[in-house]
Amino acid sequence: MHLLLATALFVISCKLSSAQYYVSENCAAHNAPLPCDNFSEYAEHIDEYSNAVFYFIGTNYVRSLVNFCETDNITLEGLDQNAVIACYDDDEEDVGLAITESSHFSFNSISLYNCKMVVMNSSNISITGSLFYEVDDLDMKNALDVSFSHSILYKTSLYFLYTALKECNSELQNYSLSLFNLSGINTDIVVAMIHSTAYNLSVSLDHINITSNYTTENIKIKLSNSMYSIRIADTSTYNGRSGLIFSFIRDLEERCDIAGIDPSLQSVIVKDSHFYGNAICGILIDSTIVNSRLHEFFIQSISITNNSYFGLIVAFDFLTCPEIHIENANISHNPRNWIYNCDSVLLSNVRIIETLSTGLALKGSSIAVKNSLVFMNNSGVNGGGVSLNGSSFILLFPGASIDFIGNRASNKGGGIYNSEHILCPFIFLGEEEDFVLPVLNFQDNSAGTIGNDSYGVILFGEPVQLVVNETDISSTTDAVRMHFCEPGLENENTTNLMDKQNIFPGQKVEFYVTMLGFGANLSAYSTTDGSVDIILRHPNYEGQTIKFETQPVAASCSKVEFLPDASLLIGDDTEVELQIRQTKELNLINIDYEALQFQFIVNQCPIGFSMNESGICDCTENISSAKNVTCDINNLTLSHNGLRWIGTHNAGESFNANDSHSDVCIINEHCLVYCIPSSITFMINDTNNQCTNNRGQRLCGSCREGYSLLIGSNNCGLCDSKYFIIAWVALFAVMGIAMVVFLILLNLTVSQGTLNGLLFYANIIKLYEPVFSRERALPALGQVISWINLDFGIEACFYKGMDRYAKEWLQFVFPFYLWIIIIIIILLCRRYGKISRLFGSNTVPVLCTLLFLSYSKLIRTVVIALDRRDITIHCTGNVTSLSVWYEDPTVEYGKGKHAALFVFALLVMILFIVPYTCLILFSPLFEKHMSNYKMFNKYWSWIKPIVDAHSGPMKDKYRFWPGVLLVARLPMLLSVILVDSYILRRLYLLCILLTVLAILFSLGYCFGGLYRNKRHDFLEAWFLFNLSIMASLAVISNDTSIVAIWFNISLGIFTVTFAVIIHYHLHQQLLHHTWYRSLLRRKKQEKPKQEEKEEIKTHKTVDAQKREIVPRTTNIRINHHGRESVIELY
Description:
This protein is α/β, with parallel strands linked by helices.
């Protein structure tokens, strides 16, 4: 180290003849030659030094401002790589270096830390090989002939200001500012020139590289009408607020102009540079106060990429702008590029790529294109490639080409968009004799609405002369034509005429129009959008024309609607005139816009509507009285929340929803069974939409036209064949006989005591099926329940045209058919002994069983047949009431065909239901208290077998229990049948069921056993318990899916139990046959012998067991002579 220092000192002493001084905080430690002292000592008399070289060794501290004032040939140079000048931060005074009124000042190879450095009114300043660390003020005012090179700036602001000199020169002087090979971090460089013609300044920025953190401007050049030339080359800026800014400012009032010298054209050259990743923009050229026409910019071979807000901005506020030549530039991946109020921008071989908001937006500007200009993969709202606004133009040199490739506009003009509708924004430059037509190339451009390639631009024909390398151009303009149209046929069925419309107060006038603009030339048209002015003429306006409103029209056959003023009189014709709204002026051509006209008339409110206080048709009072009912006069629809029916009294008659009859009667009633439970919107002439399952007409009481009521459910369906009835009648006939024979053969009757609980469970489950689960049970399980309840259970068409009235008669037919079959069998058994021996003594119990099975079905059928509801009919000025059959409100109650059903249902109730209930319930009382009467005994002998069949399994004192089970069905039957809605009254129905079950359990517990056979008590309790669990789970759980699962589980348990009962009865019947008893006896005898053999085998020795092992290859012969024949069992 000492040898190196000595060598350096020797070389310097040989080269320099100036005075040499050494600066060090510790001269002895560094072996510095004399004179040597710290910098503070020299600073006290620094203005006395000239022609001096100060060599800095190590770190040197500055505690005050060191001012080199009026010095000459001063050099500050670092003697080694660690030469540092550091300042103590003192708020009371500036600390650092100042060079004023000096010349030939050099600052070399020194690191300046936390100091300020100011150069004022000095010349020949040289800074090289130095580091400026956190130098807040590196300011140079009127520093002439400055060379700043090979240095690094960190968090440093480098500012140059050039103004008029203190002493004016008589002749023009040339000075320079040269910045070369500078690297900056979080640094900005500002050069401001407002010296007018006091001197000529040459500015050069070469190989400048600045990286910031969005806090600095990077490079900013402030221009005025002064004499200078600027050259920026091989420069890059990154992550600053902006990359490169040129802004124009005013000259100072203090001037030092040289007589006879005027500012000439000033040139600014930027070349081979890169501006990327900046927060605001890549390059900004703007002026708001200075006429900048005396400047000329040459921007060559540059790239402006990935800036955050703008790429290129050229903005002048209504002032003349300089000539700007941009050549061989790549402007890509920026949000936007703007040129505002500038008419002298030349683009040559420029590529604008992947801009997010229009490749290039012009406003009040014109650009000239030489060679090629490419817009590729840019996007925007209006204009993906180029957007022309504020009377902007594009000037084309001979042979110029503009490529629009893959640009996308979310609205209009994928390639180019001209907002001012100038039609031809292109101006051509060049002589006619050597004129080479410019070329426009459109490829893969798209727009969200219209004009994939261009909007507002004419590309073919006079006065345009262009070569367009695309035969199928998608181009349009603002609207110049308008026609009425039909949706979907806008290009096929357009007309200028339309029929008169009839509307109602509050209803909108609707029509469809399509607008046309010019296509790629003036002789072709293409669909476009726009706005239409609606103008009305009406007697109320006293012949005046009133502009009513303006409506937008989309680029298709579009619906336009407006709501006329409520003051228009009903019955008067109103004339409508439609005009294309002109928001822009068309140049070059004159267009005669043709207006469209039509008429409309305001009629009285239609059925279901009346005029309210606002003069608008709304729901009539009888309709609006219900909650959540709304009416829409525009769509002629009514809406409500469901479970309600609104319509006319004669709902089956067809009429037009536009009719306005005053004598139509309206019904507005709850409809809780067959109406949709959710919100519904419908028209007053199509009330069937309020109904479920293909039902319709008044209160959804019947099927829609063409549908028939199905057996097995209350739904309506289509019947394809009229021969279904023959097949079903035959099937029912066979099923009835089969069912009776099945009961007789198995003795599956109430006299056995196994069916009381089972039938009670099956009857209640059938009643409560919609309460337990909105979804039907599994088919196999539900079918068993249906058959036990004498229902078909399968949804099918019985015959075409079947309605509820016919189905209700069928509900009576099948039970009576079963009775007839068993009565015939009973009569045949009494007359013919063979038949009696065949069926045995089971016929009367089977009849009792069928009566028991039919009891619930007949009660339900009778109650439904007798059920009535009253509906209110609202007519004009009159309100009446009508009684209808609840199950089918299209049928009047007790009149017409319902009268026969009503009488028959009463007879069934009087002749069967009431006597049968009293007989089974009170038979023990009848037998006890009336047995002494001979007349009673005569008839009682006929009835007693039926009573004994029901009460035979019971203990003598509980022979009334079957009657109790019959009566227990009544509250649940009546509540389920008469309730308005299973959904709304679900909890109520379940509570009734649980109450009845609780009473039955209590009575059974109090009586301590009702049946002679204890197993029958257990079996009945088992069915009641299963039903109780099901009802309790339905009350507890609100999750319908869980309830449905448990419902099917309960049915599964019931089905298994029923199968066990059938097996038991089959076993009991087979015991009457000798062969079956013999078979059972033989099995009982074989079982002890087999057990004895197994016991003997268990005591064999191991050797004996091994001998009995049969080899796998041994052939075994089995003797069949001892096996008994199956036929001999019979």
